[in-house]
Amino acid sequence: MNYEEFDKHFEKKMEFFLHQQARFDADMQRLTEAQTRTEKAIARVENVVASLSSLVFEGFKITDSKIQALAESHKLTDSKILALAESHKLTDSKIQALAESHKLTDEKLRELVATVDRHIREGHRGLNSA
């Protein structure tokens, strides 16, 4: 290889290296820009996740307080149901006593009607009869 061939070969190699370096620089520039966009996107995602976390946490606190209120209400409802059941038992016993009293009243009324009917059949007219 003579000097001219060497020079041509060297220039081609140098052109190749310069072209590769230019491609490398362009690729690095695109990677740097992509990295910047990615970092910005990650920062936005972090903000959104932080906001959502806060909302979810607040939602759980609200739900927890509502569950506690519901549990308290349930306790009150249970006690009211128990009181109502006791009242129902008392009402049942009073109705039972009233039914028994009604039976006795019916029995006494029948006896009275039978006695009046017997007096009328026997001709007893009462105190003012002459």
Brief descriptors of the model:
1 helix, rod-shaped, mainly alpha, 130 residues
- Report the strand count: 0
Largest sheet: none
Q: Taking all residues together, what is the mean pLDDT?
A: 85
Shape: rod-shaped
Structural class: mainly alpha
Percent range of helical residues: over 70%
What is the strand and helix layout of this fold?
Elements: H1 3-121
Q: How would you characterize this protein structure?
A:
- The protein has one helix spanning 3-121.
- It is an all-alpha fold.
- It is rod-shaped and about 170 Å long.
Kindly summarize this structure in a few lines.
This protein is mostly helical and 130 residues long. Helices cover 92% and strands 0% of the residues. It has one helix at residues 3-121.
